[in-house]
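User:
I study polymers; will you set down one protein's sequence and backbone structure tokens?

Assistant:
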Amino acid sequence: MDKFTKLVVIAEQESLHSLTLLAQSVGLPVEQQTKIAVMAAMAQKPGTLIACPYHNADLNKKGLSVELQYLQRKAPVFVFQAERALVDVRLAIYAGIRGIIYRDEQLDRVLTALKTMMNGQLYYSRQVMSELVDELLKPKLAAKQQTFMPLDNNVLTKQEKRIIQLVAEGARNKEIAFSLNISAHTVKAHLSAIFRKTNARNRVELLRWMQQPMHHDAPPFRTL
């Protein structure tokens, strides 16, 4: 996401909130408004980031509160003054919340959070983001591992190995049938079994599978 050019801090007090003052102290373009004013106004201009004080009902098992959902229609949102024990961080990430600033956060960490989010980045702990990325990658890694899983020596039959060799030499089904003295229908049945055993969807993927060094039971390419 591009950098944000304006920060809107939601606060009900007439005096400037400490978060507003902190943003001003580092030169961030910030303005303070009440929640009613923000919600009643038209959608914020592009490049606006909204800072919303956290309430216990804002994040629960059902998702975001109606107010937070409505604010997100106006502009991207992050929450501040959150209680660590009450916030479901993963739920916040999945719901599109840009970051969380906790009530007990040190001043330098709050400054880092503001600068990070105004630069268009999410603000969550490295551990949380690392765990989330690992979860997202697990299905892909598992699928990749399954695709390249080596076969036992006895999984492919001798006939299937002969057919694989002929496929590698560019032979078509009829040519394979003639070479092995079997019907084209039988060749097709053998190829279906080979594709299933090697997790290949077509001949190209089968050739790629054969090139994997771990597949010791695949016949070597013969040079002509």
